[in-house]
Design a protein that fits this description.
Layout lengths: L2 E2 L10 H13 L9 H21 L6 E4 L2 H15 L6 E5 L4 H12 L3 E5 L9 H7 L4 E7 L11 H11 L4 E5 L11 H4 L3 E5 L10 E5 L25 H16 L1 H19 L5 E4 L13 E6 L4 H9 L3 E2 L15 H5 L10 E5 L6 H23 L1
Parallel strand pairs: 1-11, 3-4, 3-5, 5-6, 6-7
Antiparallel strand pairs: 2-8, 7-8, 9-10, 10-12
Helix pairs in contact: 1-8, 2-8, 3-4, 5-6, 9-12, 10-12
């Protein structure tokens, strides 16, 4: 039996998405910038996909900029906004447990003379509006936070955080990394006051190498890919028509089934928590004082006392159980998880933590199989570790 529980790293594309991508690659292969009928049809398909995405966000088509994925969306937003607004100020505020695709471009911006303040979060992974308010200065031009933490599933109160920023200065821009949130919860950027928002296609059963950046009207941002002026000059280069069309379909399918999927994911998460907490030496992270509905439905972090995460991960892999020891994108940054440190996980458990993440394809039978294998593996691995 196979149990794929690493959906926060990537999802399997919907069969309908795969079929549509293949069709467009083979049949609708025109360049959307070409003026003949093949190009016009490709442009129509891109426009149709954009309308599907815009409908899910209740925004306009012009607010969507296509990218190669979440990393590019985050880089484009942070670097593009910082460079375009540096005359107003050079301070950027973020949290201490952002994804590398936010953290690394901010390090780059620091090397270019920008000041970045990294705010702490509490044991539940929440950023205090008061601490954000205290960090704001006249020199602040940008605040960037994730909506859902990719390792423990904490949900940040974006509405309250945006309100704090806009009350202080409406011109300060607010960027949201919604890569783990989009498709798992309803997000209305205009209603929330979000200026920029990053999304990745392969987290929502769409094609890898696709994503988009929501950009509110009037936001000043420098493009960093120059060329033929596609996408209103914000990202030059021939559009990835098959990928965009597949992303649009995945977005539509995720949006149409949102409430049904959320209910199923929460059911699976609750079931696994109940099972995990019956095992000796297992701690579920990020739930302190919270109802399960106050966390992301698809992410569960658990620590296994006395067992190294990497050892347990590969032992599970031999049983065709696929999980993660943290963010898949942090594999090039080995070491202890900054997220786990930030929320105060016991030091002895920092290297003993796995992330389980679910999709609508996950069922209770798979969870039972994982628990059964954990019951057999944990005592054996602990004995081995003690030796």
């Amino acid at each position: 039996m196979e149990a794929y529980l690493d959906n926060a790293a990537t999802t399997r594309a919907y069969k309908e998405v795969c079929d549509l991508v293949a069709k467009v690659m083979y049949e609708d292969y025109g360049n959307p910038s070409s003026r003949h009928m093949k190009g016009v049809e490709a442009e129509r398909l891109v426009r149709q996909a954009t309308d599907q995405i815009a409908k899910s966000l209740k925004c306009d088509r012009k607010n969507i900029i296509y990218t190669s994925g979440g990393t590019e969306s985050n880089n484009a937003a942070l670097i593009g906004v910082a460079l375009a607004n540096k005359r107003k100020g050079k301070k950027i505020i973020t949290t201490c447990f952002e994804h590398p695709s936010v953290h690394e471009p901010l390090i780059y911006l620091e090397s270019q003379g920008f000041e970045v303040e990294y705010l702490p979060v509490d044991a539940r992974g929440h950023l205090s509006p008061d601490s954000l308010r205290q960090a704001l200065t006249e020199d602040t031009i940008l605040v960037s936070t994730m909506m859902v933490n990719n390792e423990v599933g904490a949900i940040l109160d974006i509405a309250s955080l945006v309100q704090v920023v806009k009350d202080f200065d409406p011109d300060i821009l607010f960027h949201v990394d919604a890569i783990q949130a989009y498709g798992k919860m309803k997000i209305l950027p205009k209603k929330l006051g979000i200026d920029l928002m990053s999304v990745s296609g392969h987290k929502i059963h769409g094609p890898k190498g696709t994503g988009f950046l929501y950009k509110k009207d009037g936001i000043k941002m420098h493009p960093y890919i120059h060329g033929g002026g596609q996408q209103a000059g914000m990202r030059s280069g021939t559009e990835n028509v098959p990928g965009i069309v597949g992303l649009g379909l995945a977005a539509r399918m995720m949006d149409e089934s949102l409430e049904e999927r959320r209910a199923k994911l929460y059911d699976i998460k609750k079931y696994m928590i109940e099972k995990l907490t019956t095992l000796e030496g297992v701690t579920v992270n990020g739930l302190e004082g919270l109802d399960i509905q106050e966390t992301a439905p698809h992410i569960l972090s658990a620590s296994f006392q006395g067992v190294r995460a990497e050892v347990l991960l590969h032992a599970l892999e031999e049983k065709e159980i696929y999980v993660s020891s943290g963010s898949a994108c942090s594999s090039n940054h080995p070491g202890i998880s900054g997220t786990l440190v930030a929320i105060g996980v016991d030091r002895e458990l920092l290297d003993s933590t796995l992330r389980f993440s679910f999709s609508q394809e996950t069922d209770r039978e798979q969870i039972d199989y994982v628990i059964e294998e954990l019951e057999a593996l944990l005592p054996m691995l602990r004995r081995f570790t003690r030796r």
